[in-house]
Amino acid sequence: MSLTATIPQGLDRKEAEIYAQLDLGRIPRHVALIMDGNGRWAKKRHLPRVAGHRAGVAAVRSTVETAARIGVPALTLYAFSAENWKRRPRTETGFLMELLRRYLKQELPRLKENNIRLEYIGRKQELPQEVQERMGWARDATAENTGMVLTLALNYGARTELVDAFNDIVRAAAGNGGIAHLKIDEELVGRHLYTRNLPDPDLVIRTSGEMRLSNFLLWQLAYAEIYVTETLWPDFRGRHLLEAISEYQKRERRYGGLLEPEANNN
Ligand code: FPP
Question: Annotated catalytic, 84?
């Protein structure tokens, strides 16, 4: 069998080159991505900020499809934080909502072709009604897909998620014999998070050089490898994802323990 026969279909030449160097036994099970730098991308071009968001859609498409093609089981994109919702001008949030609605409609055939299942995390109920409807429609239309789970974080905040989880735990306990016997452990908290059906991310990527988590998946990222690139989100493509995975594979993951040789020295 030739080497190229093992390269997944649809990768471009550069992607195939990086893919060929990867350890296929260590593809992250879940990649989380903080998409940042749309505004700066637009500013550099003397364009309005929203032009950066519009250009960001091509980056989403390329990244999502490459992730699906190489067999990443789960990808979560931080599309819209709860803080974005409160702190940006209404014209910009309105534009982002419309962009999302259009994205869901336009991309649906490609999501299906790539066997991708859509999910969402965040306080969806606070989003405009027509956006919620489109989100439900797109999720239902991909519900039978068995490949990558693409989760869009929309009106998402990690602290809000924890607050919702704790309230949920107490509510469930109250309806099930009262809280006197409630025992809270990590497993129980995990089961009440929005991400209850996903493994914790192995890798978190942030674009545009910022060294912050910005209230993204704070519980779930406890042991994730962090990869920050200077690339602005609209310039990010599948090959950048593969570069991040390649870098991830060079890291030693210790989960608070020691590396093998150190452990054996004691
Ligand atoms: C951060 O850039 C980006 C966002 C707040 C929105 C992300 C949205 C997209 C990439 C558009 C499409 C997404 C989907 C899922 C359809 P920023 O505005 O904070 O950039 P700045 O830090 O340079 O100002």
Answer: yes
- What's the pTM? 0.94
Q: Which two tokens stand for residue 113?
A: 């072709």
Nearest to 36 by CA among 213, 243, 246, 222: 213
How many Cα atoms within 13 Å fall on the side-chain side of residue 221? 20
* Ligand 1 pocket check for 198: Cβ under 6 Å: no
Question: How do residues 52-73 score in pLDDT, each as one tens digit?
Answer: 999 999 999 999 999 999 999 9
Q: Is CATH 1.10.3880.10 what the domain over 27-156+200-249 is classified as, yes or no?
A: no
Atom of ligand 1 nearest to the CA of 59: 10
Distance 166 CA to ligand 1 centre (A): 29
- Taking only the tens place, the pLDDT of each residue in 129-169 is 999 999 999 999 999 999 999 999 999 999 999 999 999 99
CB 223 within 8 A of CB 243: no
Q: Using the structure block, give the residue that is written with the tokens 């390649």.
A: 246
- To the query of whether residue 12 is one of the catalytic residues in this protein, the response is no
